[in-house]
Design brief:
The complex is a heterodimer of chains A (about 450) and B (about 140). Helix content of chain A is about 30%, strand content about 15%. With about 450 residues, chain A is α/β, with parallel strands linked by helices. Chain A has a domain of about 180 residues: Thiolase/Chalcone synthase (Peroxisomal Thiolase, Chain A, domain 1, 3-Layer(aba) Sandwich), CATH 3.40.47.10. A nine-stranded mixed sheet of chain A has the order 3-2-4-8-1-9-12-11-10. In chain A, strands 6-7 form a two-stranded antiparallel sheet. The longest helix of chain A has 19 residues. In chain A, about 60% of the residues are buried. The longest helix of chain B has 8 residues. Chain B is globular, with a radius of gyration of 15 Å. Classes of the chains: A alpha/beta (about 450), B mainly beta (about 140). At the A-B interface, strand 5, helix 5, helix 6 and strand 6 of A face strand 1, helix 1, strand 5, strand 6 and strand 7 of B. Strand 5 of chain A pairs parallel with strand 1 of chain B.
Amino acid sequence: MTTPTAPDAMYRNDEGLGIWEHRGKVAAVGVGHAPTSRRWDGRPETCVGAITIDALRKAIDDAGVAPDQIDGLVVVPVTTTGAFWEQGKPLPMDVIQSFNQTDDPLDGIAKLSAEWLLANMPELTNVNFTMYGPGCMSNALNVTAQAVGDGLTHTCLVVKSWHNFEGRYYQGGANAGNALPGTPAVTQLWGGPASYSTALQFAEYCRKYGKTHEMMAPFMENSRRNGLRFPEGYWAQHRPEELIPEDYLASRWIAKPANLFDNDIPIMMSGAYLFSTAERAQDMKQNPVYILNHASSNTRPRSLVPTLDEVEADTARTGRKIYEGAGITADDLSFENMYDGFSLFHQFHLEGLGYRGIKFGEALDFYQTDISIEGPNPVSPSGGNVGSGRSRVWMHTDCIQQLQGRAGARQVTGVKPEVGVSGGPMPLGGNYTVWSASPD
Amino acid sequence: MAKQGVEPDELTQPFWDAANEKRLVIQNCVDCDRLQHPPSNTCRDCDDGGQLAWKQVSGRGTIYNYGVVHDCPVRLLQEDQPFNLAVIMLDDDPGIQMYSHLPGVPVDDVPVGAAVEVIFEPSANGQLVPEWRVIDG
Protein backbone atom coordinates (compact mmCIF):
# COMPACT_ATOMS: atom_id res chain seq x y z
CA MET A 1 0.00 0.00 0.00
CA THR A 2 1.39 3.41 -0.99
CA THR A 3 -0.08 6.29 0.91
CA PRO A 4 -1.19 9.29 -1.14
CA THR A 5 -1.25 12.88 -0.03
CA ALA A 6 -4.75 14.24 0.27
CA PRO A 7 -5.88 15.87 -2.98
CA ASP A 8 -6.87 19.54 -3.03
CA ALA A 9 -10.47 18.52 -3.64
CA MET A 10 -10.76 17.27 -0.06
CA TYR A 11 -10.41 20.78 1.35
CA ARG A 12 -13.11 23.42 1.52
CA ASN A 13 -11.15 26.48 0.48
CA ASP A 14 -13.84 28.59 -1.11
CA GLU A 15 -16.72 30.70 0.02
CA GLY A 16 -20.12 29.90 -1.38
CA LEU A 17 -19.89 26.13 -0.98
CA GLY A 18 -22.95 26.06 1.24
CA ILE A 19 -23.55 23.70 4.12
CA TRP A 20 -20.99 20.91 4.29
CA GLU A 21 -22.56 17.85 2.72
CA HIS A 22 -21.55 15.63 5.66
CA ARG A 23 -22.55 18.04 8.41
CA GLY A 24 -23.26 16.07 11.58
CA LYS A 25 -22.60 12.72 9.89
CA VAL A 26 -18.98 12.37 11.03
CA ALA A 27 -17.90 12.15 14.65
CA ALA A 28 -14.78 12.18 16.78
CA VAL A 29 -14.91 9.74 19.67
CA GLY A 30 -11.54 8.61 21.02
CA VAL A 31 -8.59 10.70 22.14
CA GLY A 32 -5.05 9.49 22.81
CA HIS A 33 -1.93 11.34 23.88
CA ALA A 34 1.56 10.05 24.57
CA PRO A 35 3.61 11.56 27.39
CA THR A 36 5.49 14.68 26.35
CA SER A 37 9.17 15.47 26.71
CA ARG A 38 11.37 18.39 25.84
CA ARG A 39 13.73 16.42 23.59
CA TRP A 40 14.25 12.88 22.46
CA ASP A 41 16.52 10.98 24.84
CA GLY A 42 17.65 8.51 22.19
CA ARG A 43 15.79 5.47 23.49
CA PRO A 44 13.70 3.30 21.16
CA GLU A 45 10.64 3.54 23.41
CA THR A 46 10.59 7.32 23.22
CA CYS A 47 11.29 7.89 19.53
CA VAL A 48 8.59 9.66 17.57
CA GLY A 49 7.36 6.40 16.10
CA ALA A 50 7.00 4.79 19.51
CA ILE A 51 5.11 7.68 21.05
CA THR A 52 2.84 7.74 18.01
CA ILE A 53 1.96 4.10 18.51
CA ASP A 54 1.28 4.89 22.16
CA ALA A 55 -1.07 7.74 21.27
CA LEU A 56 -2.88 5.69 18.65
CA ARG A 57 -3.44 2.77 21.00
CA LYS A 58 -4.78 5.12 23.64
CA ALA A 59 -7.21 6.65 21.16
CA ILE A 60 -8.40 3.20 20.17
CA ASP A 61 -8.86 2.19 23.79
CA ASP A 62 -10.53 5.47 24.63
CA ALA A 63 -13.10 4.93 21.91
CA GLY A 64 -13.65 1.35 23.00
CA VAL A 65 -13.17 0.01 19.50
CA ALA A 66 -11.62 -3.31 18.58
CA PRO A 67 -8.50 -2.66 16.47
CA ASP A 68 -9.77 -4.90 13.71
CA GLN A 69 -12.73 -2.58 13.27
CA ILE A 70 -10.47 0.25 12.16
CA ASP A 71 -10.21 0.64 8.41
CA GLY A 72 -8.52 4.04 8.01
CA LEU A 73 -5.38 5.89 9.04
CA VAL A 74 -4.55 9.53 8.33
CA VAL A 75 -1.03 10.64 9.22
CA VAL A 76 0.92 13.88 9.21
CA PRO A 77 4.24 12.64 7.83
CA VAL A 78 6.36 15.62 8.86
CA THR A 79 7.31 15.49 12.52
CA THR A 80 10.06 18.05 12.88
CA THR A 81 9.88 20.94 15.29
CA GLY A 82 12.74 22.56 13.40
CA ALA A 83 15.25 19.90 14.36
CA PHE A 84 16.59 17.64 11.62
CA TRP A 85 18.83 14.58 11.67
CA GLU A 86 22.21 16.01 10.74
CA GLN A 87 23.65 14.85 7.47
CA GLY A 88 26.40 12.35 8.11
CA LYS A 89 25.44 11.72 11.71
CA PRO A 90 25.50 7.98 12.44
CA LEU A 91 22.13 6.32 12.37
CA PRO A 92 20.79 5.03 15.71
CA MET A 93 20.90 1.36 14.78
CA ASP A 94 19.62 0.18 18.16
CA VAL A 95 16.46 2.19 17.59
CA ILE A 96 16.09 1.17 13.97
CA GLN A 97 16.46 -2.49 14.87
CA SER A 98 13.80 -2.21 17.54
CA PHE A 99 11.09 -1.75 14.94
CA ASN A 100 9.89 -3.14 11.66
CA GLN A 101 11.59 -0.57 9.47
CA THR A 102 10.61 0.76 6.07
CA ASP A 103 13.16 1.55 3.38
CA ASP A 104 13.87 4.88 5.08
CA PRO A 105 16.04 4.40 8.18
CA LEU A 106 14.82 7.67 9.70
CA ASP A 107 11.17 6.66 9.42
CA GLY A 108 9.82 6.63 12.96
CA ILE A 109 12.74 8.75 14.16
CA ALA A 110 12.67 11.99 12.17
CA LYS A 111 9.55 11.44 10.08
CA LEU A 112 6.56 9.16 10.02
CA SER A 113 4.93 7.13 7.28
CA ALA A 114 1.65 5.28 7.41
CA GLU A 115 3.54 2.20 6.27
CA TRP A 116 5.87 2.38 9.28
CA LEU A 117 2.92 2.64 11.65
CA LEU A 118 1.08 -0.27 10.09
CA ALA A 119 4.24 -2.38 10.13
CA ASN A 120 4.56 -1.76 13.84
CA MET A 121 0.91 -2.02 14.85
CA PRO A 122 0.05 -5.59 13.86
CA GLU A 123 -3.33 -5.28 15.53
CA LEU A 124 -4.49 -2.97 12.72
CA THR A 125 -5.37 -5.83 10.43
CA ASN A 126 -8.09 -4.20 8.36
CA VAL A 127 -6.78 -0.77 7.45
CA ASN A 128 -7.38 -0.32 3.74
CA PHE A 129 -7.42 3.47 3.56
CA THR A 130 -4.35 5.55 4.36
CA MET A 131 -3.72 9.17 3.51
CA TYR A 132 -1.35 11.98 4.39
CA GLY A 133 -2.62 15.28 5.62
CA PRO A 134 0.61 17.23 5.41
CA GLY A 135 1.41 20.05 7.78
CA CYS A 136 -0.36 19.73 11.05
CA MET A 137 -3.27 18.09 12.80
CA SER A 138 -5.67 20.77 11.59
CA ASN A 139 -4.97 19.70 8.04
CA ALA A 140 -5.22 15.99 8.83
CA LEU A 141 -8.52 16.47 10.64
CA ASN A 142 -10.10 18.04 7.59
CA VAL A 143 -8.87 15.16 5.47
CA THR A 144 -10.18 12.63 7.97
CA ALA A 145 -13.58 14.25 8.29
CA GLN A 146 -13.97 14.43 4.53
CA ALA A 147 -12.75 10.86 4.04
CA VAL A 148 -15.22 9.47 6.58
CA GLY A 149 -18.01 11.58 5.14
CA ASP A 150 -17.19 10.44 1.62
CA GLY A 151 -17.26 6.80 2.70
CA LEU A 152 -13.57 6.16 2.06
CA THR A 153 -13.29 4.87 5.61
CA HIS A 154 -15.82 4.32 8.37
CA THR A 155 -13.57 4.11 11.43
CA CYS A 156 -10.41 6.11 11.03
CA LEU A 157 -7.44 7.04 13.16
CA VAL A 158 -5.72 10.37 12.67
CA VAL A 159 -2.42 11.26 14.28
CA LYS A 160 0.09 14.08 14.50
CA SER A 161 3.45 13.74 16.23
CA TRP A 162 6.49 15.91 16.78
CA HIS A 163 10.13 15.03 17.31
CA ASN A 164 12.62 17.36 18.90
CA PHE A 165 16.34 16.65 18.92
CA GLU A 166 19.21 18.27 20.73
CA GLY A 167 20.41 21.65 19.50
CA ARG A 168 18.87 25.05 19.13
CA TYR A 169 15.77 25.71 17.09
CA TYR A 170 16.50 26.03 13.36
CA GLN A 171 20.13 26.85 14.01
CA GLY A 172 21.64 23.96 12.11
CA GLY A 173 21.74 23.20 8.42
CA ALA A 174 21.88 26.13 6.03
CA ASN A 175 21.66 28.65 8.84
CA ALA A 176 25.03 27.48 10.15
CA GLY A 177 26.74 27.75 6.77
CA ASN A 178 28.67 30.53 5.09
CA ALA A 179 26.61 30.66 1.92
CA LEU A 180 23.08 30.05 0.67
CA PRO A 181 21.74 29.03 -2.73
CA GLY A 182 20.38 31.98 -4.64
CA THR A 183 16.66 31.32 -4.24
CA PRO A 184 16.49 30.95 -0.45
CA ALA A 185 19.08 33.73 -0.16
CA VAL A 186 16.51 36.19 -1.50
CA THR A 187 14.51 35.80 1.70
CA GLN A 188 16.80 34.22 4.28
CA LEU A 189 19.98 36.29 4.24
CA TRP A 190 18.52 38.77 6.71
CA GLY A 191 18.06 36.21 9.47
CA GLY A 192 14.50 36.65 10.67
CA PRO A 193 13.47 34.03 13.26
CA ALA A 194 10.31 32.01 12.76
CA SER A 195 8.17 34.44 14.74
CA TYR A 196 9.44 37.50 12.86
CA SER A 197 6.59 37.73 10.37
CA THR A 198 3.98 37.43 13.11
CA ALA A 199 5.85 40.01 15.18
CA LEU A 200 5.61 42.43 12.27
CA GLN A 201 1.89 41.90 11.88
CA PHE A 202 1.45 42.46 15.59
CA ALA A 203 3.55 45.64 15.45
CA GLU A 204 1.41 46.99 12.64
CA TYR A 205 -1.73 46.02 14.55
CA CYS A 206 -0.54 47.91 17.62
CA ARG A 207 0.31 51.00 15.57
CA LYS A 208 -3.01 50.95 13.74
CA TYR A 209 -5.24 50.38 16.74
CA GLY A 210 -3.20 52.00 19.50
CA LYS A 211 -2.53 48.76 21.40
CA THR A 212 0.54 47.49 23.23
CA HIS A 213 2.41 44.25 23.81
CA GLU A 214 1.60 44.58 27.52
CA MET A 215 -2.05 44.01 26.64
CA MET A 216 -1.18 40.42 25.73
CA ALA A 217 -0.39 39.54 29.35
CA PRO A 218 -3.91 38.47 30.45
CA PHE A 219 -4.18 36.16 27.45
CA MET A 220 -0.81 34.61 28.20
CA GLU A 221 -1.61 34.15 31.87
CA ASN A 222 -5.00 32.63 31.06
CA SER A 223 -3.52 30.29 28.46
CA ARG A 224 -0.87 28.95 30.82
CA ARG A 225 -3.50 28.58 33.55
CA ASN A 226 -5.60 26.49 31.20
CA GLY A 227 -2.56 24.55 30.05
CA LEU A 228 -1.65 23.61 33.59
CA ARG A 229 -5.08 21.97 33.75
CA PHE A 230 -4.26 19.91 30.66
CA PRO A 231 -2.66 16.78 32.11
CA GLU A 232 -1.54 15.65 28.67
CA GLY A 233 0.49 18.85 28.14
CA TYR A 234 4.16 19.67 28.52
CA TRP A 235 3.93 22.43 31.10
CA ALA A 236 1.53 20.42 33.28
CA GLN A 237 3.77 17.35 33.11
CA HIS A 238 7.19 18.92 33.47
CA ARG A 239 7.09 22.56 34.55
CA PRO A 240 3.90 23.32 36.47
CA GLU A 241 4.61 27.05 36.62
CA GLU A 242 2.05 29.82 36.30
CA LEU A 243 2.94 32.57 33.86
CA ILE A 244 2.33 35.81 35.68
CA PRO A 245 2.26 39.07 33.70
CA GLU A 246 5.49 40.32 35.28
CA ASP A 247 7.41 37.26 34.12
CA TYR A 248 5.84 37.30 30.68
CA LEU A 249 6.67 40.96 30.13
CA ALA A 250 10.20 40.59 31.51
CA SER A 251 11.17 37.70 29.28
CA ARG A 252 13.79 38.21 26.60
CA TRP A 253 12.93 39.25 23.08
CA ILE A 254 13.25 36.86 20.18
CA ALA A 255 12.05 39.19 17.45
CA LYS A 256 10.67 42.26 19.18
CA PRO A 257 7.74 42.60 19.70
CA ALA A 258 7.66 38.78 20.03
CA ASN A 259 9.30 37.59 23.23
CA LEU A 260 10.29 34.15 24.45
CA PHE A 261 6.83 33.21 25.69
CA ASP A 262 5.19 34.44 22.51
CA ASN A 263 7.14 31.62 20.87
CA ASP A 264 5.86 28.15 21.69
CA ILE A 265 8.29 25.66 23.19
CA PRO A 266 9.26 22.78 20.85
CA ILE A 267 8.60 19.36 22.40
CA MET A 268 8.23 15.68 21.67
CA MET A 269 4.56 14.76 21.59
CA SER A 270 1.92 12.73 19.83
CA GLY A 271 -1.84 13.16 19.72
CA ALA A 272 -4.36 10.88 18.04
CA TYR A 273 -8.10 10.69 17.53
CA LEU A 274 -10.54 8.08 16.39
CA PHE A 275 -13.16 9.31 13.93
CA SER A 276 -16.11 7.37 12.64
CA THR A 277 -19.44 7.78 10.99
CA ALA A 278 -21.96 9.28 13.35
CA GLU A 279 -23.94 6.09 13.12
CA ARG A 280 -21.11 3.83 14.25
CA ALA A 281 -20.11 6.31 16.94
CA GLN A 282 -23.31 5.62 18.81
CA ASP A 283 -21.96 2.26 19.95
CA MET A 284 -18.58 3.50 21.14
CA LYS A 285 -17.35 4.17 24.66
CA GLN A 286 -17.34 7.99 24.59
CA ASN A 287 -19.98 10.44 23.52
CA PRO A 288 -19.60 11.36 19.87
CA VAL A 289 -18.54 14.88 19.01
CA TYR A 290 -20.02 15.75 15.65
CA ILE A 291 -18.23 17.61 12.90
CA LEU A 292 -20.41 20.39 11.54
CA ASN A 293 -17.89 21.66 9.02
CA HIS A 294 -14.28 21.90 8.02
CA ALA A 295 -12.85 24.86 6.19
CA SER A 296 -9.48 25.88 4.86
CA SER A 297 -7.49 28.89 3.74
CA ASN A 298 -4.74 28.54 1.18
CA THR A 299 -4.17 32.24 0.73
CA ARG A 300 -0.62 33.45 0.20
CA PRO A 301 0.71 36.94 0.83
CA ARG A 302 1.50 39.08 -2.20
CA SER A 303 5.17 39.32 -1.26
CA LEU A 304 7.47 38.48 1.67
CA VAL A 305 5.29 38.96 4.74
CA PRO A 306 1.52 39.22 5.07
CA THR A 307 0.37 42.77 5.67
CA LEU A 308 -2.25 43.48 8.29
CA ASP A 309 -4.73 44.20 5.50
CA GLU A 310 -4.06 40.79 4.03
CA VAL A 311 -4.40 39.14 7.43
CA GLU A 312 -7.68 40.80 8.26
CA ALA A 313 -9.18 40.11 4.85
CA ASP A 314 -8.30 36.44 5.07
CA THR A 315 -9.31 35.80 8.66
CA ALA A 316 -12.67 37.40 7.90
CA ARG A 317 -13.00 35.19 4.84
CA THR A 318 -12.10 32.14 6.92
CA GLY A 319 -14.72 33.08 9.49
CA ARG A 320 -17.37 33.29 6.81
CA LYS A 321 -16.36 29.89 5.41
CA ILE A 322 -16.44 28.31 8.85
CA TYR A 323 -19.94 29.58 9.60
CA GLU A 324 -21.35 29.01 6.14
CA GLY A 325 -20.43 25.35 5.97
CA ALA A 326 -21.54 24.65 9.54
CA GLY A 327 -24.80 26.55 9.17
CA ILE A 328 -24.10 28.56 12.30
CA THR A 329 -23.23 32.10 13.30
CA ALA A 330 -20.72 33.50 15.75
CA ASP A 331 -23.48 33.54 18.35
CA ASP A 332 -23.56 29.74 18.31
CA LEU A 333 -19.97 29.33 19.50
CA SER A 334 -19.71 28.22 23.11
CA PHE A 335 -15.95 28.70 23.04
CA GLU A 336 -13.05 29.03 20.63
CA ASN A 337 -9.77 27.18 20.38
CA MET A 338 -8.09 28.93 17.49
CA TYR A 339 -4.35 28.53 17.15
CA ASP A 340 -1.86 30.46 19.22
CA GLY A 341 1.63 29.41 18.27
CA PHE A 342 2.67 32.23 17.89
CA SER A 343 0.61 33.90 20.56
CA LEU A 344 0.69 37.25 18.78
CA PHE A 345 -1.72 36.13 16.09
CA HIS A 346 -4.45 34.58 18.20
CA GLN A 347 -6.30 37.90 18.16
CA PHE A 348 -6.39 37.87 14.37
CA HIS A 349 -8.25 34.58 14.43
CA LEU A 350 -10.67 35.86 17.08
CA GLU A 351 -11.44 39.02 15.18
CA GLY A 352 -11.90 37.15 11.92
CA LEU A 353 -14.43 34.92 13.64
CA GLY A 354 -16.13 37.88 15.27
CA TYR A 355 -16.05 35.82 18.45
CA ARG A 356 -18.45 37.38 20.97
CA GLY A 357 -18.99 40.20 18.51
CA ILE A 358 -15.48 41.60 18.63
CA LYS A 359 -14.34 43.55 15.61
CA PHE A 360 -10.91 44.27 14.13
CA GLY A 361 -8.74 46.03 16.65
CA GLU A 362 -10.80 44.98 19.68
CA ALA A 363 -9.35 41.62 20.73
CA LEU A 364 -6.66 42.98 23.02
CA ASP A 365 -9.28 45.00 24.87
CA PHE A 366 -11.33 41.81 25.06
CA TYR A 367 -8.34 40.12 26.69
CA GLN A 368 -8.63 42.61 29.57
CA THR A 369 -12.09 41.21 30.42
CA ASP A 370 -12.97 37.82 31.91
CA ILE A 371 -11.72 35.30 29.33
CA SER A 372 -11.42 32.42 31.80
CA ILE A 373 -13.03 29.02 31.52
CA GLU A 374 -15.35 30.04 34.37
CA GLY A 375 -16.66 33.10 32.56
CA PRO A 376 -19.13 33.65 29.74
CA ASN A 377 -16.44 34.30 27.12
CA PRO A 378 -13.79 31.57 27.36
CA VAL A 379 -10.76 32.22 25.19
CA SER A 380 -8.56 29.27 24.28
CA PRO A 381 -9.76 26.93 27.04
CA SER A 382 -7.18 24.43 25.84
CA GLY A 383 -4.43 26.88 26.69
CA GLY A 384 -3.06 26.10 23.27
CA ASN A 385 0.62 25.94 22.55
CA VAL A 386 1.21 28.69 25.10
CA GLY A 387 -0.22 26.46 27.79
CA SER A 388 1.06 23.05 26.75
CA GLY A 389 3.92 23.38 24.27
CA ARG A 390 4.13 23.18 20.51
CA SER A 391 1.77 20.63 19.11
CA ARG A 392 -1.04 22.32 17.16
CA VAL A 393 -3.11 19.53 18.72
CA TRP A 394 -4.28 20.73 22.13
CA MET A 395 -6.95 22.96 20.63
CA HIS A 396 -8.62 20.02 18.94
CA THR A 397 -8.34 17.68 21.90
CA ASP A 398 -9.89 20.35 24.08
CA CYS A 399 -12.84 20.85 21.74
CA ILE A 400 -13.56 17.13 21.82
CA GLN A 401 -13.15 16.82 25.57
CA GLN A 402 -15.13 19.98 26.35
CA LEU A 403 -18.06 18.80 24.25
CA GLN A 404 -17.88 15.32 25.78
CA GLY A 405 -17.92 16.93 29.21
CA ARG A 406 -14.63 15.36 30.23
CA ALA A 407 -12.17 18.24 30.11
CA GLY A 408 -11.65 17.81 33.84
CA ALA A 409 -10.26 20.84 35.63
CA ARG A 410 -10.30 22.65 32.31
CA GLN A 411 -14.01 22.17 31.72
CA VAL A 412 -15.75 25.42 30.81
CA THR A 413 -18.35 26.31 33.39
CA GLY A 414 -19.48 29.78 32.37
CA VAL A 415 -21.12 28.51 29.21
CA LYS A 416 -22.86 25.33 28.21
CA PRO A 417 -20.43 23.52 25.90
CA GLU A 418 -22.39 22.95 22.71
CA VAL A 419 -20.32 24.15 19.75
CA GLY A 420 -16.60 24.86 19.51
CA VAL A 421 -14.18 25.79 16.77
CA SER A 422 -10.49 25.04 16.44
CA GLY A 423 -7.80 25.30 13.82
CA GLY A 424 -4.87 27.08 12.35
CA PRO A 425 -2.01 27.50 12.11
CA MET A 426 -1.44 30.83 10.40
CA PRO A 427 -3.96 33.58 9.79
CA LEU A 428 -3.13 33.08 6.11
CA GLY A 429 -3.07 29.39 5.40
CA GLY A 430 -4.86 27.09 7.79
CA ASN A 431 -7.50 24.46 8.36
CA TYR A 432 -10.43 24.65 10.73
CA THR A 433 -12.99 22.33 12.29
CA VAL A 434 -16.37 23.07 13.83
CA TRP A 435 -17.31 20.61 16.57
CA SER A 436 -20.68 20.04 18.17
CA ALA A 437 -22.18 18.02 20.97
CA SER A 438 -25.20 17.50 18.78
CA PRO A 439 -25.42 16.46 15.12
CA ASP A 440 -28.11 19.06 14.42
CA MET B 1 26.69 43.17 9.00
CA ALA B 2 28.34 40.21 7.32
CA LYS B 3 25.60 38.30 5.56
CA GLN B 4 26.05 34.74 4.33
CA GLY B 5 27.42 34.48 0.82
CA VAL B 6 25.18 33.72 -2.14
CA GLU B 7 25.52 30.98 -4.72
CA PRO B 8 23.19 32.10 -7.53
CA ASP B 9 21.01 29.40 -9.02
CA GLU B 10 19.18 29.23 -12.33
CA LEU B 11 16.07 31.00 -11.11
CA THR B 12 17.80 33.89 -9.38
CA GLN B 13 20.97 34.34 -11.47
CA PRO B 14 19.64 37.53 -13.17
CA PHE B 15 18.70 39.02 -9.78
CA TRP B 16 22.17 38.45 -8.35
CA ASP B 17 23.99 39.43 -11.56
CA ALA B 18 22.10 42.73 -11.55
CA ALA B 19 22.99 43.25 -7.90
CA ASN B 20 26.67 42.88 -8.79
CA GLU B 21 26.09 45.69 -11.31
CA LYS B 22 24.36 47.70 -8.55
CA ARG B 23 21.00 47.44 -10.25
CA LEU B 24 17.80 46.19 -8.64
CA VAL B 25 15.67 43.96 -10.82
CA ILE B 26 12.39 42.29 -9.90
CA GLN B 27 10.60 39.49 -11.68
CA ASN B 28 7.73 40.72 -13.83
CA CYS B 29 5.04 38.83 -15.67
CA VAL B 30 4.95 39.95 -19.30
CA ASP B 31 1.37 38.74 -19.69
CA CYS B 32 -0.25 40.40 -16.68
CA ASP B 33 2.41 43.12 -16.18
CA ARG B 34 2.67 42.43 -12.49
CA LEU B 35 5.80 42.36 -10.38
CA GLN B 36 6.43 39.44 -8.05
CA HIS B 37 8.95 38.91 -5.31
CA PRO B 38 10.30 36.52 -4.13
CA PRO B 39 11.04 35.04 -7.55
CA SER B 40 9.24 31.97 -8.77
CA ASN B 41 9.26 29.75 -11.83
CA THR B 42 5.69 30.72 -12.67
CA CYS B 43 3.51 33.78 -12.46
CA ARG B 44 1.38 33.56 -9.35
CA ASP B 45 -1.52 35.35 -10.96
CA CYS B 46 -1.74 33.90 -14.45
CA ASP B 47 -3.64 30.64 -14.30
CA ASP B 48 -2.00 29.39 -17.47
CA GLY B 49 1.51 30.44 -16.44
CA GLY B 50 2.55 33.85 -17.74
CA GLN B 51 5.93 34.58 -19.28
CA LEU B 52 8.34 36.01 -16.74
CA ALA B 53 11.09 38.56 -17.29
CA TRP B 54 13.29 40.71 -15.09
CA LYS B 55 12.47 44.39 -14.80
CA GLN B 56 14.76 47.06 -13.43
CA VAL B 57 13.04 49.14 -10.76
CA SER B 58 13.83 52.56 -9.36
CA GLY B 59 15.50 51.43 -6.18
CA ARG B 60 13.33 53.75 -4.14
CA GLY B 61 10.98 52.65 -1.41
CA THR B 62 9.42 53.21 1.98
CA ILE B 63 9.93 51.52 5.32
CA TYR B 64 6.72 49.58 5.80
CA ASN B 65 7.39 47.83 9.09
CA TYR B 66 10.17 46.43 11.24
CA GLY B 67 11.11 44.16 14.10
CA VAL B 68 14.24 43.86 16.19
CA VAL B 69 15.97 40.50 16.02
CA HIS B 70 17.48 39.40 19.31
CA ASP B 71 17.72 35.66 18.66
CA CYS B 72 18.75 35.03 15.08
CA PRO B 73 18.94 31.50 13.65
CA VAL B 74 21.72 32.48 11.18
CA ARG B 75 25.09 31.97 12.80
CA LEU B 76 26.95 34.67 10.89
CA LEU B 77 24.51 37.34 12.05
CA GLN B 78 24.43 36.40 15.71
CA GLU B 79 27.36 38.57 16.73
CA ASP B 80 25.44 41.60 15.47
CA GLN B 81 22.37 40.98 17.68
CA PRO B 82 20.18 42.81 18.34
CA PHE B 83 19.61 44.29 14.91
CA ASN B 84 16.84 45.92 12.93
CA LEU B 85 15.07 43.87 10.33
CA ALA B 86 12.76 46.03 8.27
CA VAL B 87 10.42 45.41 5.37
CA ILE B 88 10.66 47.88 2.50
CA MET B 89 7.79 48.59 0.10
CA LEU B 90 8.96 49.49 -3.39
CA ASP B 91 7.80 52.81 -4.86
CA ASP B 92 7.33 51.01 -8.17
CA ASP B 93 4.73 48.75 -6.54
CA PRO B 94 4.05 49.00 -2.80
CA GLY B 95 2.83 45.41 -2.81
CA ILE B 96 6.39 44.26 -3.43
CA GLN B 97 8.52 43.94 -0.31
CA MET B 98 12.23 43.52 0.38
CA TYR B 99 14.08 42.95 3.63
CA SER B 100 16.67 45.33 5.03
CA HIS B 101 18.91 45.62 8.04
CA LEU B 102 18.74 49.39 7.55
CA PRO B 103 22.46 50.12 7.93
CA GLY B 104 23.07 53.26 9.94
CA VAL B 105 19.70 53.28 11.69
CA PRO B 106 19.95 52.83 15.48
CA VAL B 107 18.46 49.63 16.85
CA ASP B 108 14.72 49.91 17.53
CA ASP B 109 14.67 53.52 16.37
CA VAL B 110 13.32 52.88 12.92
CA PRO B 111 11.39 55.64 11.14
CA VAL B 112 8.45 53.66 9.78
CA GLY B 113 7.18 55.37 6.65
CA ALA B 114 10.52 57.01 5.84
CA ALA B 115 11.83 57.05 2.29
CA VAL B 116 14.74 54.73 1.51
CA GLU B 117 16.97 53.96 -1.45
CA VAL B 118 18.72 50.80 -2.42
CA ILE B 119 22.43 50.30 -1.88
CA PHE B 120 24.49 47.18 -2.42
CA GLU B 121 26.68 45.54 0.19
CA PRO B 122 29.13 42.67 -0.19
CA SER B 123 28.18 39.36 1.42
CA ALA B 124 30.61 36.80 2.81
CA ASN B 125 31.65 35.55 -0.64
CA GLY B 126 31.69 38.96 -2.32
CA GLN B 127 28.28 38.71 -3.97
CA LEU B 128 26.61 42.13 -3.70
CA VAL B 129 23.30 42.08 -1.87
CA PRO B 130 20.56 44.75 -2.00
CA GLU B 131 20.25 46.79 1.17
CA TRP B 132 18.42 50.00 1.94
CA ARG B 133 19.35 53.29 3.58
CA VAL B 134 17.17 56.09 4.78
CA ILE B 135 17.19 59.11 2.50
CA ASP B 136 18.17 62.16 4.52
CA GLY B 137 15.71 65.01 4.72
